[in-house]
Amino acid sequence: MSACTIRLARLFCTMAALGAGGCFGANAPNGNDDAAYGTAPDLGPLCRGNNDGTIERGELSFPVGVSVNYLANPSGTTATVAPAGTQAGGVTEWDLTSTAGDVHKLTLEALAGKWFAASFPGATYATTTDLASGTLGIFRVADEGLYILGYASETPNQTLLVYDTPILSLKFPVTLGDAWVATAHIVNGTLDGMPYAGLDTYKISIDARGTAVLPFLSFANTMRVHVDLTQTVPGGVSVTRIQYLFFHECYGELGRMVSVVDEPNEIFTNAGEFRRLAL
Q: Tell me, what DSSP letter sits at residue 57?
């Protein structure tokens, strides 16, 4: 596997659908083993839902300028996860209670004034996709769904990857059983200062509903979004990642479990990234 392909797999290891309307805490605490849990959130979600197991467009907020704290295992490490969950009274429960790891403050940023803004007309916001490098994913919010438009670095002219067709990463309403495939090319792109082209294929399904358990709250009727991402570069070399994202009305993304590169097991137990909503 080439060095370019390895960097690409790291960059796109997350779908980065940060639809977080729940903003907990004004400041991100330093990374530690308890992540400052034990204090109550100072802000609630920015919308009202009915907890009916379907997430309507109006039940997810994308407030530009708002920051949300997430815990994740340190870059270059793995974490034990259970994306299948466990059964409790006939309901699937996903354990997102671990407080180990580092806290990352992720912000939905406006594109105005950014060096890459002209490459993404109609974009709604940018937010960090790769925690290690700080590379941004660029998104557009529409009535029918959340689209990924591409990726860019904060530093000018380092990374600029524009999809020729926007990727529908989340379809509204978010409904159990929905599934779709989206593909897009990147042509004449730049990755870490080097020329890049490729084809990305996303297989996305809303494949489970259950309860996500965090240290401070349990969220019934959480939707699990399953993403199989395959990236192919010139010469036919490809890498794959499996992702499970957990969404709830108004609070948006509660957490995610992302496999290591080319993971053979759909229900993996060793994650390259394990992210959870933090206080």
A: G
Unique residue bearing structure tokens 């590169």: 261
- Number of CB atoms found within 10 A of residue 171's CB: 18
- Distance separating alpha carbons of residues 217 and 276, to the nearest angstrom: 12
**111-162 pLDDT, tens per residue?**
999 999 999 999 999 999 888 889 999 999 999 999 999 999 999 999 999 9
pLDDT at 69 over 90: yes
Give the three-state DSSP class for 247: strand
φ, ψ (nearest 5 deg) of residue 32: -160, -175
Q: Whole-angstrom Cα distance, residue 183 to residue 167? A: 7
**143-to-19, 56, 57, 59 alpha-carbon distances in Å:** 14, 10, 7, 12
Distances (CA, A) of 232 to 5, 35, 97, 264: 9, 37, 35, 17
pTM: 0.87
Report d(CA 86, CA 63) in Å as an integer: 33
Segment (H or E) for 11: helix 3-11
In total, the chain counts a number of residues equal to 279
Are 200 and 181 in contact by the 8 Å Cβ rule? The answer is no
* Position 92 pLDDT exceeds 70: yes
- How far apart (Å, rounded) are the C-alpha atoms in residues 165 and 269? 33
In 3-state terms, what secondary structure has residue 118? helix
Q: Which of 15, 20, 106 is nearest to 59 (CA)?
A: 20
* 234 secondary structure, DSSP code: T
